[in-house]
């Protein structure tokens, strides 16, 4: 254990002390070298190969290989002053801090580098020097003997007058240290006499004479001569200056400048001879004498019992904490001297036996400081002799705790004990325990605690595995203590080391604490640039409380302002830039009317533009393929933009703090390179493209608007606490070239400029063939090929409402402008929702006020429009300069909900650019359509008339707060006539439909086609017969025209949108209901009051469970002279197949015989008369026609007179789909009366779509048909 660091320290600090007494002329001689006499000899007092035989207590010799002497002037042999020692230690720390000042500008050490360093390089080297100085503050203690002088070296100059007398006077009692005079130390020590000869100004004869006289007086062996300063010029330079480490306050070039190499050798020989021939033999002799004396008086059983008996009464003695109980001559002191001498002579067994012997005495005497000191030496002896670890720990713990019990008087000794203990634990690789030892000796002194905490931190990093969190935590604690003692350099140094620990952790609070304080401390030492760098790390401190954030921000701006300059900071985190929100909006052949249009997904626009964008050559190509064929190869991955048109970048800025922050002058960082050769290549035709060498480029980089090559927008805004804001920044190139958007910059508090660069990292994407290719990230979309200026179409739709009711019909105007002098032509437009928007006609604009222009009588203003998906503007339409085009549009809110309308307008340019022959204008609008009226229709055949049908219309007002008035109901197509079954005021008693109100009303419609057996021929219907008025306010008000556009066009779109499986069936009816907002309604649902609403119901099928419709045609009343008993009556049964399948119908009659139902006379009625219902009652039918009969006659008239079917009684016919057939019939009656001719049945079989496997069948009872036969007069 001698080779360990603690072993070397023990060799230096627990070694024999030599007291130096010299005359002033001796000091004067050595000051020529910038050194005192003691300083001159110190480098030569450490002997690593002395090889001296020693015999102490036993007969066996051992050899000393290493030995050290400590030299002190007699005036320095005293207990150090506490304040002076404290200042000395503070000076050591300050001096070490000044040496590391210049290293503070470098980057902080990384934890990986720290862990990879050798153990000796991890902790600062000045710790060892500090620890030694700390131990030396306890020099010359009264309870220890290893600091007692072993010998005295008396030194006189050959230039001194009466040198012999000087030697005598030097050892005078008045000149000796007080510790020797007071009896603490033994004044009877070895004396050695040295004569110093200065070769520069002393004579050799005198020196020889004085030396002879000395030897005759003090003895030949006790006297020596030292010749020095052999260099006459005094300018000797030593390559390896031995005094540099001992005298750092003087330049190394001046140290020993008068000493030659021979002089140094002479000094070295002198000290080695002094140690080996005088000090060691003297100590050896002293140890033998003391051991012999102590063995005779204290060792053995008899002496031990005697000693205990003598100390029996000392148990009542109070604790000795002040003053000394023992003189140098007391038995206890002699034993302690024996132990310390043996320790210094490396006889650790003898030292241990002496310490154990005296330990009991001190304990019995309650001399706790002496006891602790002995325990401390025992622990050191156990360790250095490599004995039991438990014994070492027991002794050191015992010593430490005893020192601490003494209070403040024992703390310094406890500190020294803790240092020894920590070093011993480190030597055994017990770094965690060593850290605990350092922590225990921190004490209340902040500066001392700082050094101990820092040493403890390095122990944590040396553990296996490294305890990095504890390492960083103790460094932070140490830094705080350094700062409290104004040791700013050391505070910065420790915090710098702690940064590497917390940089990769999620402990944001301690990271902010470290960066904030180290930033403030850098500012204190004048390193403002480094201070700003560290303070920047805490700007993203959203996890901190609001007051803490205010402090951070205030101090940051104070530091920045003190620098007196603007700081450009790359990666500034205030505000935070969300790169995932980066969105680039630019216009190539695709232009946008608004931001909403630019944010629409590209696939939506592409699907809309597929039919209007022309193909390149013969094959169909998209824009990317077209671009790749026309651009130079090195610009294939670049986007294309047009000079004079801005490129927009959307970025989200977020304030990570809880306090408001003002952001100023936010702009993009761009580069525009003008490359004339490549621009010329772009403007050539594809067939003539060729690649040459790259020409020189002019590089422009703009930070503010004002460069001629491009213009940048700037924005100022304020972000509240935690607020996010999407900011749009633009760059407008004015020249052709290559434009790169490389980043964004902003100002903070006028002194800090934040810069964020958009980094591009290629990502790997796998192709279909399994190969990998580079796929560029979105930031690579920030490179543009700028081509020359092109015409750009601007468009808008006037008075387009954002919110309206379902069915609301509006007249709008599309306005198009081209501010360029270059004309555009061949305009086409495609609309995503033809159901909502229908282009009008520009040649005949609407002149009558809307919506009166849609009423009948104004057909000349409305022209039927083409309903194709692509609308082509007239060929002669051309726009340039300030000329604008206003084109009418019809808007109808077809269905409720949020609707996105997309418009694409295609146009071509002439003689402008070879790579861009056309452009498109994209327009996008969102409509919120609120529910209004909801209609449903149910149509059933009339039970008595073939071509007539009953219609039930159900209306519900789904609006939340508005009422609607119904204007008209119309059938579409001219086939169906419509009429009311009720009065209007009966249908709508309140004239309007309130919110949530439901209404049912009935109408009669008639199929006006001419019936035939094979083909139905359409018969035109008057327009007035297809509409019914549902209002009473103004009888003269005209109907809305549903035949012409826009209502007819929108109805065609509705027919396509509402298409069902039955839409091809001719047995369906379309209705249009026209309404408007009630005048009493406040129209809270929409911003603009709707003037007309159209509700389209298409493909309403006639509902019936029977595929047949029939009627019995014949007279209603007949007169006959019953004098002739038989009356024959001719009838006709008309049957219509209302289905789309082939129908087979069987007709069968049933006779009513005279005895089957004899007439029953009743009072007041003529025999044979029966109740005849009123005709008006017959017309009041319900919708459930097929399952009901007409009103029944009174019960007294339920019987009928007899009649027979005298003609065809049964037959079977085939009826084609939607065809009619007639069957002739005849009955015979025998008496006057009213006859119900319903005694027949129709049995049918239906084959659907000529598929014999899909059939249905049924039986129908005849309808009631009342025939009145009266007696003729």
TrEMBL record:
Residues 602-764 form the TPPC8 first Ig-like domain. Coiled coil: none annotated. Pfam families: Ig_TPPC8_1st (PF24545), Ig_TPPC8_2nd (PF24544), Ig_TPPC8_C (PF24542), TRAPPC-Trs85 (PF12739). Residues 1110-1242 form the TPPC8 C-terminal Ig-like domain. Residues 807-921 form the TPPC8 second Ig-like domain. PANTHER family: TRAFFICKING PROTEIN PARTICLE COMPLEX SUBUNIT 8, TRANSPORT PROTEIN TRAPP. This is Trafficking protein particle complex subunit 8.
């Amino acid at each position: 254990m001698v080779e360990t660091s603690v072993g070397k320290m023990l060799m230096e600090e627990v070694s024999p002390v030599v007291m130096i007494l010299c005359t002033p002329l001796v000091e004067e001689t050595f000051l020529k070298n910038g050194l005192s006499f003691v300083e001159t000899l110190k480098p030569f007092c450490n002997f690593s190969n002395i090889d001296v035989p020693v015999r102490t207590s036993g007969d066996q010799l051992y050899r000393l290989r290493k030995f050290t002497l400590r030299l002190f002037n007699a005036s320095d042999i005293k207990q150090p002053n506490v304040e002076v020692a404290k200042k000395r230690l503070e000076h050591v720390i300050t001096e070490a801090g000044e040496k590391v000042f210049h290293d503070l500008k470098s980057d902080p050490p990384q934890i990986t580098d720290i862990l990879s360093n050798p153990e000796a390089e991890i902790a600062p080297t000045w710790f060892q020097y500090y620890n030694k100085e700390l131990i030396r503050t306890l020099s010359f203690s009264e309870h220890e003997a290893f600091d007692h002088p072993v010998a005295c070296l008396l030194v006189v100059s050959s230039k001194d007058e009466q040198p012999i007398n000087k030697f005598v006077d030097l050892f005078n009692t008045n000149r000796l240290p007080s510790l020797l005079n007071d009896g603490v130390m033994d004044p009877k020590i070895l004396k050695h006499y040295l004569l110093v000869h200065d070769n520069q100004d002393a004579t050799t004869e005198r020196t020889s004479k004085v030396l002879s006289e000395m030897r005759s007086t003090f003895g030949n062996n006790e006297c020596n001569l030292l010749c020095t300063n052999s260099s006459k010029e005094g300018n000797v330079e030593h390559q390896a200056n031995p005094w540099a480490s001992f005298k750092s306050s003087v330049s190394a070039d001046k140290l020993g400048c008068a000493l030659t190499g021979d002089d140094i050798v002479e000094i070295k020989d002198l000290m080695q001879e002094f140690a080996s021939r005088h000090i060691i033999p003297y100590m050896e002799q002293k140890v033998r004498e003391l051991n012999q004396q102590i063995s005779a008086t204290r060792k053995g059983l008899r002496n031990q019992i005697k000693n205990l008996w003598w100390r029996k009464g000392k148990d009542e003695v109070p604790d000795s904490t002040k003053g000394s109980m023992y003189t140098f001559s007391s038995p206890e002191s002699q034993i302690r001297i024996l132990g310390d001498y043996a320790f210094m002579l490396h006889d650790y067994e003898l030292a241990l036996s002496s310490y154990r012997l005296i330990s009991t005495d001190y304990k019995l005497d309650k001399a706790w400081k002496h006891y602790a000191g002995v325990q401390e030496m025992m622990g050191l002896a156990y360790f250095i002799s490599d004995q039991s670890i438990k014994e070492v720990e027991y002794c050191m713990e015992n010593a430490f705790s005893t020192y601490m019990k003494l209070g403040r008087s024992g703390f310094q000794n406890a500190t020294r004990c803790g240092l020894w203990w920590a070093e011993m634990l480190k030597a055994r690789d017990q770094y965690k325990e060593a850290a605990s030892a350092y922590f225990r000796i921190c004490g209340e002194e902040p500066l001392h605690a700082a050094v101990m905490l820092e040493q403890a931190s390095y122990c944590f990093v040396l553990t296996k595995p490294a305890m990095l969190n504890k390492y960083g935590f103790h460094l932070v604690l140490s830094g705080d203590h350094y700062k409290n003692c104004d040791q700013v350099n050391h505070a910065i140094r420790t915090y710098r080391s702690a940064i590497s620990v917390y940089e990769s952790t999620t402990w944001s609070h301690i990271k902010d604490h470290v960066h904030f304080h180290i930033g403030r401390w850098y500012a204190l030492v004048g390193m403002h640039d480094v201070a700003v760098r560290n303070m920047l790390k805490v700007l993203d401190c959203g996890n901190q409380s609001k007051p803490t954030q205010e402090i951070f921000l205030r101090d940051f701006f104070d530091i920045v302002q003190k620098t007196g300059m603007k700081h450009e900071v790359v990666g500034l985190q205030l505000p935070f830039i969300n790169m995932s929100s980066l969105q680039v909006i630019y216009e190539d052949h695709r232009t946008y009317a608004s931001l909403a249009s630019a944010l629409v997904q590209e696939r939506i626009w592409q699907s809309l533009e597929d039919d209007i964008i022309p193909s390149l050559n013969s094959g169909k190509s998209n824009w990317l393929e077209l671009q790749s064929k026309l651009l130079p190869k090195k610009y294939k991955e670049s986007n294309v933009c047009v000079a004079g048109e801005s490129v927009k970048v959307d970025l989200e800025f977020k304030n990570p703090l809880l306090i408001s922050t003002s952001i100023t002058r936010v702009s993009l960082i761009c580069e525009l390179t003008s490359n004339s050769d490549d621009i010329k290549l772009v403007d050539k035709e594809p067939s003539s493209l060729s690649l040459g060498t790259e020409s020189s480029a002019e590089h422009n980089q703009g930070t503010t608007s004002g460069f001629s090559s491009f213009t940048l927008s700037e924005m100022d805004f304020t972000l509240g606490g935690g607020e996010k804001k999407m900011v749009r920044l633009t760059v407008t190139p004015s020249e052709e070239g290559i434009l790169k958007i490389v980043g964004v910059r902003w100002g903070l508090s006028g002194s800090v400029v934040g810069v964020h660069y958009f980094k591009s990292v290629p990502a790997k994407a796998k192709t279909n063939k399994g190969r990998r290719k580079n796929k560029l990230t979105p930031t690579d979309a920030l490179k543009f090929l700028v081509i020359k200026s092109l015409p750009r179409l601007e468009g808008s739709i006037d008075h387009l409402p954002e919110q309206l009711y379902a069915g609301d019909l509006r007249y709008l105007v599309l306005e198009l402008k081209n501010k360029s002098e270059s004309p555009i032509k061949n305009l086409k437009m495609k609309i995503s929702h033809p159901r909502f928007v229908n282009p009008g006609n520009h040649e005949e604009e609407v002149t009558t006020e809307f919506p009166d222009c849609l009423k009948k009588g104004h057909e000349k203003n409305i022209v039927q429009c083409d309903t194709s998906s692509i609308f082509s503007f007239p060929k002669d339409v051309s726009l340039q300069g300030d000329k604008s085009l206003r084109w009418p549009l019809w808007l109808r809110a077809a269905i409720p909900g949020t609707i996105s309308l997309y418009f694409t307008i295609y146009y071509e340019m002439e003689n402008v650019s070879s790579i861009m022959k056309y452009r498109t204008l994209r327009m996008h609008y969102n409509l919120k359509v609120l529910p209004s009226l909801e209609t449903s229709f149910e149509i059933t055949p009339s039970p008595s008339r073939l071509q007539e049908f009953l219609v039930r219309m159900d209306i519900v007002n789904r609006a939340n707060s508005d009422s609607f008035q119904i204007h008209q109901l119309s059938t579409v197509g001219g086939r169906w006539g419509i009429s009311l079954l009720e009065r209007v005021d009966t249908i709508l008693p309140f004239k309007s439909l309130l919110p949530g109100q439901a209404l049912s009303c009935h109408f009669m419609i008639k199929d006006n086609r001419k019936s035939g057996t094979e083909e139905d021929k359409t018969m035109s219907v008057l327009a007035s017969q297809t509409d019914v008025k549902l209002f009473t306010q103004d009888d003269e008000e005209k109907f809305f025209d549903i035949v012409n556009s826009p209502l007819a066009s929108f109805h065609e779109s509705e027919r396509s949108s509402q298409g069902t499986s039955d839409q091809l069936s001719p047995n369906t009816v379309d209705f249009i209901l026209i309404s408007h907002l009630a005048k009493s309604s406040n129209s809270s649902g929409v911003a603009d009051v709707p003037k007309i609403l159209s509700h389209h119901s298409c493909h309403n099928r006639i509902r019936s469970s029977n595929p047949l419709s029939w009627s019995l045609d014949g007279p209603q009343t007949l007169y006959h002279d019953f004098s002739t008993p038989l009356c024959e009556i001719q009838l006709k049964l008309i049957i219509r197949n209302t289905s789309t399948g082939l129908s087979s119908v069987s007709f069968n009659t049933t006779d009513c015989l005279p005895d089957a139902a004899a007439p029953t006379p009743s009072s007041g009625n003529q025999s044979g008369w029966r109740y005849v219902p009123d005709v008006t009652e017959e017309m009041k039918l319900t919708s459930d026609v097929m399952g009901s009969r007409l009103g029944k006659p009174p019960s007294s008239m339920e019987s009928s007179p007899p009649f027979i079917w005298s003609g065809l009684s049964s037959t079977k016919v085939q009826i084609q789909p939607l065809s009619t057939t007639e069957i002739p019939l005849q009955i015979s009656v025998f008496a006057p009366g009213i006859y119900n001719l319903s005694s027949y049945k129709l049995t049918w079989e239906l084959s659907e779509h000529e598929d014999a496997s899909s059939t249905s069948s049924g039986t129908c009872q005849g309808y009631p048909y009342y025939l009145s036969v009266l007696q003729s007069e």
